[in-house]
Structures are given as structure tokens and as C-alpha cells.
Amino acid sequence: MKQILFLSILLLIISCSSKKNESAENSKPHVVATTGMLYDAVINIAGDKVTAEAIMGPGVDPHLYKATQGDLAKFNKADLIVYNGILLEGKMSEILKKLGRQKPTVAAAESIPKEMLKSAIGYQDAYDPHIWFDVKRWRYAVKAISHALIKLDSANQKYYEANTQTYFSRLDSLDTYVRERINEIPESQRILVTAHDAFVYFGDAYGIRVEALQGISTVADFGLKDIAEIIDLIIENNIKAIFVETSVSEKSINAVVQGCKEKGHEVKIGGYLYSDAMGELGTEEGTYIGMFRSNVETIVNALK
């Protein structure tokens, strides 16, 4: 009888503790980010003061992504929505703007001064949205997210501000690391060839010429003329390696490799680059800094 009573009390304590933890979790602000890069910034700033989730995971192309009913439910539940903006989330742009009239949202990339944005070739009055590939531009996005979190949860303002400054220090170290590694590549070989134009800011910030088959959006088509021009560029500059992106089909890059081979020039695939999506959560490549370092190591090791 005593054993049964003890077990009943133990179960009651566990149940109460579970409900208490669940209540505490539910009382935290709920933040929904569209991409992994934005989610990572939220986590670095807010830590365990919020519950956060990302809509798009590894290998997902945000240019083509369509919101599901489940995504809409997450957006409606959110206390704060964090998205890139500048039309990165092309097929969700109207939904995100509409939600912005109903609840707190932050378009992180739109906090960057206009003079620091690159025009999107082929798109009238549009900017290139891939701002995370320059650490210094990315700092503006992180700051915008920090301000939005402070506005949402002012009770934890000092905590968010301290975490933001710590993260800025880590980003500064990353920026230094990138510059040092890129300098290992001979200047004549600092040409980055990829499937779509996601690395313009990277090239601008770190002194690399960037060429791609498609424009800033994977919605854009490419043809035989585009492939022929890239092949000629590779041969003329004796480029040793070109790169595949984890969120874009390999088909176009494989066509370039084959075209070079037919003209007597051997060019290898230097590796996979994270462009519009990061790696799996729980891995180094599933963080912004880890993803960036992985890209740089892949590029430098293939081109130097």
C-alpha cells in the first residue's frame, strides 16, 4: 500500500513539473524565421529566452519555395516573423507583407543601407537578396533582428544586447578569417563559377570575380549560349574548379564540365557550396559561421 502511495505521489510531482515546464515554454515569445541563416541569428541573440523555428531547412531553395498550410499555421502562431526580404522568398513575398500588417515582422535585409545593396541584373528596380555572404552587410541584418527581439520582449533587453555584441565579435573574427584564407588563392585564380548568382556580395567583399549560369533567382532560365560563354571563360582563364550548390540542381554545372572536356580542358567540380540554405541542424554547417567557413575552405582548397 505504501509503495502504491509513493508511486502516486511521484507521478503527481512529475505531472505538475511537466505542466510547469510546458507553461514556462508557452510563455516565451515564439519566433518564426524563413531561412536557416535568420533562425541562427535569432538563436545567437535570444538563446533560450524564445522558442524559435525555421520554415525552410537544408537543401531548400527559397526562390522557389511555396508556403504550405503548416507554414501558414506557424506564421499565424508566431509572435515575431523574421524574413530576409528583397524578394528572396519570392513566392511568399505577398503573404509576408500581409502578415506584416497584422503582427510584428522584420525584413532583415531591408535594414541594409541602399548604397550597400547590389542591383539585380535583369530585374528592374530590384536588389540582390543574398546579403549574408558579406559578413559586414550581415551585421546590419543581425542588428535589425536584435532590435525586433528587444521591442517584442523588452524585459530581456540587456540579455539580447549582450548576446548581440558577443555575436558581433564572432562575426568580426569570421570576416578576418575569410580575408586571410582568400589571400591564399593566386589573384589570377580568384574566379568563382557557380550555378546561380548567389555570391555577388561575397565577391564584392572579398575580392573574387563571380560568374554564374543563372541570375540571382533560380527561377531564371539559362540556355546553350550561357553554357558556351561560361565554358569559354573557364578555358581562357585556365580555371581549375567550379562549384555545385546544395540547394540547386547539378545539371547545369555538369553540362559545363562536359563542355570543357569536349574542348580539351579538364575542370573539376571543386565541391558543394551552401548558397540559399545551410547544413543540417546540429552540425557546424548548420550554423551561419560554420556554413560560411565550410564554403571558404571548399573554395580555397579547390582554387589555390
Question: What does this protein look like?
Answer:
The protein is globular and about 65 Å long. The protein has a 4-stranded parallel β-sheet with strand order 2-1-3-4, sandwiched between helices. Strands 5-6 form a two-stranded parallel ribbon. The longest helix has 26 residues, at 2-27. With 304 residues, it is of the alpha/beta class. Strand 7, helix 9 and strand 8 (268-273) form a beta-alpha-beta unit. 48% of the residues lie in helices and 12% in strands. It folds into 2 domains: 22-174, Rossmann fold; 179-303, Rossmann fold, CATH 3.40.50.1980. It contains 10 helices and 8 strands.
Keywords for this entry:
alpha/beta; Rossmann fold; 2 domains; 4-stranded parallel beta sheet; two-stranded parallel sheet
The CATH H-level superfamily of the largest domain is Nitrogenase molybdenum iron protein domain
Query: Any low-confidence stretches, pLDDT <50, length ≥5?
Result: 14-24, 216-220
Class by helix and strand content?
Answer: alpha/beta
Question: Could you give the order of strands across the largest sheet?
Answer: 2-1-3-4
Q: What is the CA-based Rg, rounded?
A: 23 Å
Write the H/E string, N to C.
HEHEHEHEHHEHEHEHEH
Mean pLDDT: 89
Strand content: 5-15%
* Biggest beta-sheet profile: 4 strands, parallel
CATH architectural name of the largest domain = 3-Layer(aba) Sandwich
Report, as a whole number of angstroms, the end-to-end distance: 76 Å
Query: What fold name goes in the CATH topology slot of the largest domain?
Result: Rossmann fold
Tally of DSSP β-strands? 8
Assign an overall shape.
globular
The number of domains: 2
Helix content: 40-55%
Treating each run of at least 4 consecutive H or I residues as one helix, how many helices? 10
For the record, the CATH class of the largest domain is Alpha Beta
